[in-house]
Amino acid sequence: MEPRTLQEAIVYFADPVNCREYVVARRWRNGVVCPRCESDNVAFQEKYNRWQCNKRHDRRQFTVKTGTIFEDSPLGLDKWLTAMWMIANDRNGISSWEIHRAIGVTQKTAWFMLHRIRLAMQDEKGGKLSGEVEVDESMIGGLSRFMHKDKRERVITGTGGKDKTVVMGFMERGGRVRAKVVESRTRKELQKEVREHVEAGAAIFTDELLSYEGLDADYQHAVINHAVEYVNGNVHTRSSLINSV
Ligand SMILES: [Zn+2]
């Protein structure tokens, strides 16, 4: 559940169980794991609102706050999550005064929270994409994947694309989306971008463009043939990238 208004957010995050579930759903998409050893062999201790890892090591107990920006803060998750919700849901940029009024902390504390959250959000957006990443390029003025194969080949490999802007899109399945304007669609340029934005070892899905050949040494590479649009196990054509670019 995602609160839709500030009032809803305040009411929702006032409940510690809601806070816990909200963080768990975002932090551990595939189930809770120990922040220290990453084992999923963990037991929830309801009475203490915490988990205990069943592997042998120090500090086996942890909460949703462990290893996050909230960990060493005396402020409750109700305040942190409401403030985060406000920042994430305000297009014009929220001020520390608004946070101060909404959650009842001093303006100075609100200012500190605001900065900490903004830094954390930057970190989250930065870094390389991982897991399964779809890579696509398109030219502004006509998306290559919607072209007929003949035209597409002419445009892509011929001179047709030279004076158009090439946009490279990266979509992490179930995760982040990025778009970047690139100089050209040469092998050197496209592969440089892949290496810059995608973690080595990740599975990448690209179209048949020759420019991506040679990435196999560092990535699990699957090719999507848009012209045929076949579905082959994990390889499938994408949908949401277009809307994001
Ligand atoms: Zn552990």
Give a verbal description of the structure.
The chain is of the alpha/beta class. It has two domains: 6-31 and 69-125, no CATH class; 132-244. The protein is 34% helix and 16% strand. The protein contains eight helices and eight strands; from the N terminus they run H-H-E-E-E-H-H-H-E-H-E-E-H-E-E-H. It has helices at residues 6-13, 16-27, 77-88, 96-103, 107-125, 149-157, 187-197, 240-244, and strands at 42-45, 50-53, 61-62, 132-139, 166-172, 177-182, 203-206, 220-223. Mean pLDDT is 78; it is low at 141-147, 155-163 and 227-245. Zinc ion binds at residues 34, 36-37, 39, 53, 55, 57, 60. Residues 34, 36-37, 39, 53, 55, 57, 60 line the site of zinc ion.
Bound molecules: zinc ion
Give the overall shape: globular
Mind describing the biggest β-sheet?
Answer: 5 strands, mixed
Instruction: Give the tally of β-strands.
Output: 8
Kindly summarize this structure in a few lines.
With 245 residues, the chain is α/β, with parallel strands linked by helices. It has 2 domains: 6-31 and 69-125, no CATH class; 132-244. 34% of the residues lie in helices and 16% in strands.
Structure characteristics:
8 strands, 8 helices, 245 residues, alpha/beta, 2 domains, binds zinc ion, three-stranded antiparallel beta sheet
Describe the secondary-structure layout.
Layout lengths: L5 H8 L2 H12 L14 E4 L4 E4 L7 E2 L14 H12 L7 H8 L3 H19 L6 E8 L9 H9 L8 E7 L4 E6 L4 H11 L5 E4 L13 E4 L16 H5 L1
Parallel strand pairs: 4-7, 7-8
Antiparallel strand pairs: 1-2, 2-3, 4-5, 5-6
Helix pairs in contact: 1-3, 3-5, 4-5
The structure holds zinc ion.
